[in-house]
């Protein structure tokens, strides 16, 4: 039996029967990559002076907390109301019907690493098309909080990097305050949810963030990180206000803005990681108690 016809046809595109050109394909992918890098940079430039777009970015980063700053910027630019994204095939595997002519979101997926001529290691990124749940007939996930206030407080304080002490009052009516000199996080007694989580997460973010020498900017970064953590865990964030962005943002270069966003995301991830460890510990304890009954 001769298979030459099948082998020959596999080297041609299905649409126009043109032989595959690896060089042209590489150029096309590079152009797509550059388009996405440019869009991420453009969005970073826009959000530094537009409070609405800045908050849209934060909402996306909170929703997609495992995504990089670049990809959060890309999602925010293309579909700021996105809530759950997957590839086309993954939606189909999940049993969802994808609407006709769907709107795709393009992101950058990390691929293999490579060494540059200066011996530094870089990661190669590939353009990837994603679909939000709004482009399908799938039912949205319910945004329900899975943990009680007591469990959340334990999680916030789990593996805390500083000593914690409760006090009757703090200056300026603050709910919490990290004193860097004695490395103690003071929490005002009598605070209720969500005020205690809002105040506490701001100070915990300060502990994890490096000081830049600009107090206004440092306070803003910890405020943003607090917003991300609280929003992710279903804590009321209605008291947060981003109408007046720091003036210093407007003079920052694009890379500096993205680095700042990276610092904010890093502080969020540090808190999320410690909280996740606590939730896992609570789940194990509950499972052990159930088995003992």
Structural summary, described in words:
The chain has 9 helices and 6 strands. It has helices at residues 4-9, 22-47, 51-63, 69-78, 88-93, 149-157, 195-208, 215-232, 254-292, and strands at 85-86, 105-115, 121-132, 163-167, 176-179, 184-188. The strands form 2 sheets. Strands 1-3-2 form a 3-stranded antiparallel sheet. Strands 4-6-5 form a 3-stranded mixed sheet, with helices on one face. The protein is globular, with a radius of gyration of 24 Å.
SSE arrangement:
Blueprint (H helix, E strand, L loop, with lengths): L3 H6 L12 H26 L3 H13 L5 H10 L6 E2 L1 H6 L11 E11 L5 E12 L16 H9 L5 E5 L8 E4 L4 E5 L6 H14 L6 H18 L21 H39 L1
Parallel strand pairs: 4-6
Antiparallel strand pairs: 1-3, 2-3, 5-6
In short:
This protein has helices spanning 4-9, 22-47, 51-63, 69-78, 88-93, 149-157, 195-208, 215-232, 254-292, and strands at 85-86, 105-115, 121-132, 163-167, 176-179, 184-188. The chain has 293 residues and is an alpha+beta fold.
Average pLDDT rating: 90
The share of residues in helices is 40-55%
Count of extended strands = 6
Strands side by side in the biggest sheet: 1-3-2
Q: What fraction strand? A: 5-15%
**Given the C-alpha coordinates, what overall shape results?**
globular
**Unreliable sequence segments:** none
Structure class: alpha+beta
Element-by-element helix/strand order: HHHHEHEEHEEEHHH
Rg value: 24 Å
**Tell me about the biggest sheet?**
3 strands, antiparallel
So how many helices?
Answer: 9
Span of the ends, CA to CA: 68 Å
């Amino acid at each position: 039996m001769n298979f030459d016809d099948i082998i020959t046809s596999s080297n041609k595109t299905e649409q126009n029967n043109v032989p595959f050109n690896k060089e042209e394909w590489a150029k096309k992918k590079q152009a797509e990559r550059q388009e996405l890098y440019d869009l991420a940079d453009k969005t970073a430039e826009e959000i530094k002076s537009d409070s609405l777009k800045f908050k849209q970015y934060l909402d996306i980063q909170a929703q997609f907390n495992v995504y990089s700053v670049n990809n959060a910027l890309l999602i925010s630019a293309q579909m700021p109301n996105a809530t759950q994204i997957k590839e086309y095939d993954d939606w189909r595997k999940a049993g969802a019907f994808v609407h006709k002519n769907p709107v795709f979101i393009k992101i950058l997926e990390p691929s293999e690493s490579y060494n540059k001529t200066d011996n530094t290691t870089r990661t190669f990124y590939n353009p990837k098309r994603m679909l939000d749940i709004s482009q399908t007939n799938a039912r949205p996930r319910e945004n329900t909080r899975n943990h009680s206030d007591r469990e959340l407080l334990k999680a916030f304080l789990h593996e805390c990097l500083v000593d914690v002490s409760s006090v009757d009052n703090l200056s300026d009516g603050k709910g919490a305050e990290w004193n860097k000199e004695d490395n103690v996080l003071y929490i005002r007694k009598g605070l209720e949810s969500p005020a205690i989580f809002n105040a506490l997460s701001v100070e915990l973010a300060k502990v994890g963030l490096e000081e830049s020498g600009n107090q206004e900017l440092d306070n803003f970064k910890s405020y943003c990180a607090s917003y991300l953590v609280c929003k992710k865990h279903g804590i009321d964030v209605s008291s947060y206000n981003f109408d007046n962005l720091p003036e210093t943002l407007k003079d920052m270069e694009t890379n500096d803005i993205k680095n700042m966003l990276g610092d904010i995301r890093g502080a969020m991830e540090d808190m999320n990681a410690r909280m996740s460890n606590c939730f896992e510990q609570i789940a194990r304890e509950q499972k052990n108690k159930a088995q003992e009954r």
